[in-house]
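User: Predict the complex with iron/sulfur cluster.
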Amino acid sequence: MIHQKNSIRFNCTGCGQCCLGHPDEHFIELTDEEAEKIRIYLGMDKRAFKRSYLVRDKYIGAGLKINSHGRCELLDEDNRCTIYPVRPRQCITYPYWPELLESRAVWDAEAGRCEGINQGGVIATDYIEKQLALYKP
Ligand code: SF4
Ligand code: SF4
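Assistant: Here is the predicted structure with iron/sulfur cluster placed in the model:
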């Protein structure tokens, strides 16, 4: 992966664009444990939480819904995450995803979505490795 040989720079501006979905994304990956933490944080009963926020995928299991406008349902009007302390690992680890670090071209292309990519200081390789380890469910 590119961070092993190249400097990776990143500085999150908090713009919220990463919560707005991709044309080819339909949900945010979620373990059952993460789903339960979010449900408790929101103080919702299981049925209402499932109906409002969850989708089921035959390969990954539970996922957080992205609405028909491509927005995560848990993003507020100011583009802030309403469950930030319990957001799932897919959100915590962005943009240090294996598929984004596979080549410089892919990483640079993602900068079109995320204005923090290629900005700010160089991120330590150890830190990126930790995020990659966390990314795996
Ligand atoms: S798109 Fe990038 S810069 Fe904007 S909030 Fe997400 S991670 Fe931060
Ligand atoms: S859970 Fe929060 S951080 Fe993750 S996509 Fe939704 S609003 Fe963004």
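The first strand starts at residue 9 and ends at 10.
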